[in-house]
Amino acid sequence: MPRSGGLRTALHALGAGYLAAGHEPILIVPGAGYADEMTSQGRVITLPGPVVPGTGGYRVILARRRLQKLLEDLAPDRLEVSDRFTLRWTGRWAREHGIPAVMVSHESLAGLLSFAGPLGNPWADRLNSRTLRAYDKIVCTTGWAAGEFRRIGADNIAQVPLGVDLELFDPSRYSDDLRARYAEPHQVLLVHCGRLSQEKRPERSVEALVALRRRGVDAVLVVVGDGPLRARLQELARGHTVHFVEFVAERTAVASLLATADVVIAPGPIETFGLAALEALACGTPVVVDAASALPEVVGAAGVAVTNDFAAGVLQVLERPAPARRAQARRRAERFSWPAAVAGFLAVHQSLVLSGAVP
Fold first, then answer.
1. Which of 49, 149, 256, 338 makes an SS bond possible with 154, Cβ 3.0 to 4.6 Å?
2. Three-state secondary structure call for residue 230
3. Contact at 8 Å (CB) between 290 and 269?
4. Is the dihedral angle over the CA atoms 193, 197, 200, 204 positive or is it negative?
5. pLDDT by residue (tens digit) across 147-202?
């Protein structure tokens, strides 16, 4: 959980929003050991959970009986689940106890299983059908994310975009000192920020840097994040101007780096929303994204969507005058706020009351 990036950000923002709206949110997360504490996002209960191999530190809750006992003791009047893999069973538990349940789809199951080859889609459809039957409502953050459910005839989908902290992520975070640390005044500063794992395709950012330099563009790349591909990426980047920065827990530091960059590259092909890309826009920095993902929905004309040539996407961004492209990025981000996202999620829960899902 401490290194879960966008998911951790979303859960914290939603919890804080629910608390501010007068609710009593209780967040149950996996961790190294048990903990129970009050935080700015409400009560957070940590249950011991193992690290999933090859994920760069992600943990899951596998102690089903312990979690079930905890849920029974807490007796919630609503259930919102953000782990569609190991916790799908909680939907059935909620239904048996007369508790309305919502599943938030933060990942594309069809996308993840596509790495397994042509058998991925049938398995994704089968598992998604089970999720649809188990929960009263499925919340998707983009139309792209909802697509894998709508193609199997889902009629209990709600589309609610996530948000961004527009005060924390702001163009004023630009840092001359940070710029000088990584690049010369005349160089193009590129940033990749995200988990270094297969589904994120981080090698594309390194390849874009290499291609740009071959085209005569004096560019440098900063890669921020940890993950199982880190060593492989470092080998790929050997001999090139690529700086690797480990996971940055301090959000202001991330905001400063995003605001200082000329262009951010978000190459993941199965992103369902892309909070890091939105945070870059809020900092006034355009983003080059994969056209096959949900990110074109998020960045709009403030970014560039490409199929494979991310270097060409960077060049397309750089053709625009810097003041204009940075102002456009910020305006786009201002369409997404956490208060609006919280209101949307709460409206989904309220819709269950109006539909009679609540006993």
1. 149
2. helix
3. yes
4. positive
5. 999 999 999 999 999 999 999 999 999 999 999 999 999 999 999 999 899 999 99
Closest CA to 59 of 31, 87, 85: 31
Task: Quickly tell me which residue has 């530091």 as its tokens.
Answer: 253
Residue 139, classified by CB atoms within 10 Å of its CB into exposed (0-12), middle (13-18) or buried (19+), is buried
- Kindly list the structural domains of the chain, giving each domain's residue range(s) and its CATH number in brackets, ordered by start: 5-163+338-354 (3.40.50.2000), 171-333 (3.40.50.2000)
By 3-state DSSP, what share of the chain in percent is helix, strand and coil, each rounded to 5? 45, 20, 35
Give the separation between CA 158 and CA 144, rounded to whole angstroms: 12
Tokens of 194: 């995200």
Residue with tokens 């996308």: 111
Sign of CA dihedral 268, 220, 287, 13: positive
For 202, 231, 254, the CA distances from 234, given in Å and listed in that order, are: 11, 5, 21
H helices, E strands: number in the chain? 15, 13
Asked whether the whole model's pTM tops 0.90, one would answer: yes
Q: Are strands 263-266 and 188-193 parallel, antiparallel or unpaired?
A: parallel
Work out whether the CA dihedral 221, 222, 227, 232 comes out positive or negative.
Answer: positive
Tell me the chain's radius of gyration from C-alpha atoms. 21
Q: What is the mean pLDDT of residues 16-38?
A: 96
pLDDT, tens digit (0-9, with 9 covering 90-100), for 41-90: 999 999 999 988 766 677 899 999 999 999 999 999 999 999 888 899 99
Distance, C-alpha 15 to centroid of its chain? 16
What is the C-alpha to C-alpha distance for residues 200 and 267, in angstroms, rounded to an integer? Answer: 7
| Cα–Cα distance for residue pair 198/208, rounded to 1 Å | 17
- Residue written as tokens 């059908």? 129
Distance CA 313, CA 267 (A): 11
State the pairing for strand pair 287-290/137-140: unpaired
